[in-house]
Design brief:
This protein is of the alpha+beta class. The protein folds into 2 domains: 41 residues; 399 residues, no CATH class. The protein has a 6-stranded antiparallel sheet, with helices on both faces. The protein has a two-stranded antiparallel sheet with strand order 1-2. Strands 3-4 form a two-stranded antiparallel ribbon. Helix 1 packs across helix 14. The protein starts with a helix and ends in a 5-residue tail after the last helix. 47% of the residues are buried. This is BtrH N-terminal domain-containing protein. InterPro entries: BtrH_N, DUF4872. Pfam families: BtrH_N, DUF4872.
């Protein structure tokens, strides 16, 4: 009887957890929210952080800013007695960017959209530059040799120092991406401990996540432009940051973002969104979507990549406008600047507009697209919420996603009229996002402008 009662409680707990995860992932698919955000809407109690090998898994939104927040918290770096938030570090690093590239891979007849939502998204200097802005030294290690790269990682971990590394996303394994994504690049993660033949990594996951050491070494060496990059923050343990230093870093980050997004570049600033909105319906431009996707081949993959890039539920944290609005509110209190609250509200509106872009690009009213959104949420939810324990669920979701992508690779699940309507709706949503961001940047620039003499 005792065993039966214990089993009954365990079975009930497991069923309840499964149902909770299903509800959270359903919300992620519907709204594009990240796992923890969706969870807060579904249930009020929140899980206690997991501590693994002395490292606390705190989660996060954006890879670079989450890495820094978690690494500095691990070193017990404080400002005004508390850790720097991810949003604060994101803003100090310059905040937002803009950029759009449509990649066409003839060998696989696939297309993929890359969107740059972080300031200077096309460079790998954000982390050391942001550390320098708050006066924290960093050691950056680069080598072409696998032996030297492995030795540098071992030295950091043996000394108890977490290391930020930049592996290829397909080769690192746990995202279960198709083979043709090999070499497409990735985002930085924190390596914090060795365990058996693996390395524990923090990719904003909430439970331990292990990568086979050989896989990690190979993934780190895959992309030539940042081959074997390793970054170590080297603050004094328990450092209390000087208030003037943090305020100066915030002011510099605000000015950096305002200047960056006010630039005229159609590749690396806000005009990129206007250009993309026009390309959605331009049938004459070689890069116009009606021309690129005249026969429908590759369109489904391109639309899925837009959903994943724009939505926080995707791998890289989404459009980041909400994260920046959070920074602006924190900065408003720190600098006693109510104008920054107005700018925050404007960027919240921009975040809402980007949600509409994602909805227009991969509408849930199309059953195949709705299923793709569900599988994307299952994959991301399994990696984030369960780590190693979610590997089978993640693999199954990725396999389902790959199957649907193959099924609709040549002919999308829309007729020609539906495709034209989708292009027009996405173009309109992009134009609205662009207009709201221009207005938001105007408010930001006015807030950070020096007072007239």
């Amino acid at each position: 009887m005792g065993n039966g009662r214990a089993y009954g409680r365990t079975e009930h707990d497991m069923t309840g957890k499964k149902q909770l995860k299903e509800r959270i992932r359903a919300r992620m698919a519907a709204t594009g929210e990240r796992y923890l955000t969706a969870r807060r809407h579904v249930v009020t109690d929140q899980p206690a952080p997991t501590v693994d090998h002395g490292w606390t898994l705190r989660g996060g939104v954006h890879p670079e800013s989450a890495n820094l927040a978690n690494v500095l918290a691990h070193h017990r770096v404080r400002h005004d007695g508390a850790p720097l938030s991810e949003a604060m570090l994101f803003g100090i690093g310059g905040g937002l960017g803009a950029g759009y590239i449509l990649w066409e891979f003839a060998a696989h007849r696939t297309c993929w959209v890359t969107l740059g939502f972080r300031n200077r998204w096309q460079y790998q200097t954000w982390t050391p530059d942001t550390l320098a802005r708050i006066g924290i030294p960093a050691e950056v290690h680069r080598t072409a040799g696998a032996r030297g790269a492995a030795a540098a990682l071992d030295a950091a971990l043996d000394a108890g120092r977490p290391a930020i590394v930049l592996p290829d996303r397909q080769l690192v394994g746990y995202w279960h991406l198709p083979a043709h994504h090999d070499g497409h690049g990735g985002h930085p993660v924190v390596a914090y401990a060795r365990t058996g033949g693996g390395i524990r990594v923090d990719d904003r996951n909430l439970r331990p996540l292990t990568v086979d050491r050989a896989d990690l070494d190979r993934a780190r060496a895959r992309v030539v432009s940042y081959k074997n990059l390793l970054i170590e923050a080297r603050p004094a343990a328990g450092l209390e940051l000087d208030g003037a230093t943090v305020r100066g870093a915030v002011v510099a980050g605000l000015a950096d973002c305002a200047a960056h997004l006010s630039a005229p570049s159609t590749s690396f600033s806000l005009p990129a969104w206007r250009k993309w909105s026009r390309l959605m319906t331009d049938g004459r431009n070689a890069k116009g979507w009606p021309k690129v996707f005249a026969d429908g081949a590759g369109l489904t993959g391109a639309l899925l990549s837009v959903w994943e890039a724009v939505s926080p539920a995707g791998i890289t944290g989404g459009n980041l406008r909400g994260l920046y609005a959070t920074f602006l509110r924190e900065a408003a209190g720190l600098l006693d600047s109510p104008e920054l609250v107005e700018a925050a509200e404007a960027f919240d509106a921009a975040a809402g507009a980007w949600h509409e872009v994602a909805e227009a690009a991969l509408p849930a009213s199309v059953p195949a697209f709705a299923r793709m959104r569900e599988l994307t949420a299952e994959l991301g939810g399994a990696v984030v919420a369960d780590g190693d324990a979610g590997r089978d669920t993640a693999a199954a979701a990725a396999a389902g996603l790959a199957g649907l992508s193959r099924e609709y690779a040549e002919v999308p699940p829309l007729d020609s009229a539906g495709i034209a309507d989708l292009f027009a709706a996405t173009g309109r949503a992009l134009a609205e996002a662009y207009a709201l961001e221009v207005a938001a940047v105007g408010k930001l620039a006015a807030a950070v402008a020096p007072p007239p003499r």
